[in-house]
Amino acid sequence: xxxxxxxxxxxxxPKFILLxxxxxSRKLDRKGYTLRSGAAKGADxxxxxxxxxxxxxxxxxxxxxxxSKLYDIDDEYFKISNLYAKDFEKxxxxxxxxxxxxxxxxxxxxxxxxxxxxxxxxNATNANYKRKRTGGTWYxxxxxxxxxIPVINLRSFFK
Length: 159
What we know:
Blueprint: E1 3-7, H1 15-30, E2 33-37, H2 43-49, E3 54-56, H3 75-84, H4 93-106, E4 107-108, E5 111-112, E6 115-118, H5 131-134, H6 138-146, E7 151-153
Parallel strand pairs: 1-2, 1-6, 2-3, 6-7
Antiparallel strand pairs: 4-5
Helix pairs in contact: 1-2, 3-4, 4-6
């Protein structure tokens, strides 16, 4: 049975956290987990650099010069995003693509990630945290909490 995790976080995660993300990704890779991430600078790229098994979802082709071919976002992910993301329909199309990409990081082809591992300044672990403080990672964390997927925020362990 396939095992998936979502590895995400703030672009401006502390350097020692980024290095831990890379090590964690390597360990999970050896245990047979497939990384789901989104090619953002910072946390996403460090998780990706430690993993040989990965699904890197892009909001559009060539995002951050990433070569992933997972950039055609199916309408299904826009529909899911519209259910869970507050005011989704009011966002620009570009922002909707980022949110739909985040959806794929958490659930893809009907298969939920086993857990989300991340780092945010405010130690967010569910939808109750403020989006502005949590940054772009908020939606994936919120969606995971709505879907009863555990969220492990490294901020809890390393301050």
